[in-house]
Amino acid sequence: MTSYRERLSVPVSWWIVATALVVTLFVIVAVPVGMFGGAFVGGLAGLVLVLSYLQYGGARVEVDAQQLRAGRAVIDRVHLGTVEALTGDDARHAFGRDCDPKAYLLLRSYVKGAVRVEITDPHDPAPYWVISTRRPEGLAAALTGHSVTRS
Question: Where does the sequence pass through the membrane (predicted)?
Fold first, then answer.
């Protein structure tokens, strides 16, 4: 049973910009070359963008009774230490100036929150993981087994 699940999909604004780009490419090519050329270039660009967004935004964060999954990385929960929910500048700094180069990062620039999870496995080279999340308190609660209280 999964106690937390989140997909870090790209925001709607990215899809709007991609659509504008595809339309622009269509027009730029269709005017001098013709409709077929414009449709080909626009369709190809649209396909590349859709596949890229689905792959990049397909990263999942999942917590169940045995494991934490963040993107392609998986670790048993017995190897997790302290968990810290990060928002605002703390989240920004965790991915930037305060980041250990050996840390595992699941970074999505369009997600403003994060969770830092200490790794206690002596065989794991990463001292901690920093995971982008839209619900840092919820992910931290799922990892620690505590419920989230809001005031």
Answer: 12-30, 36-54
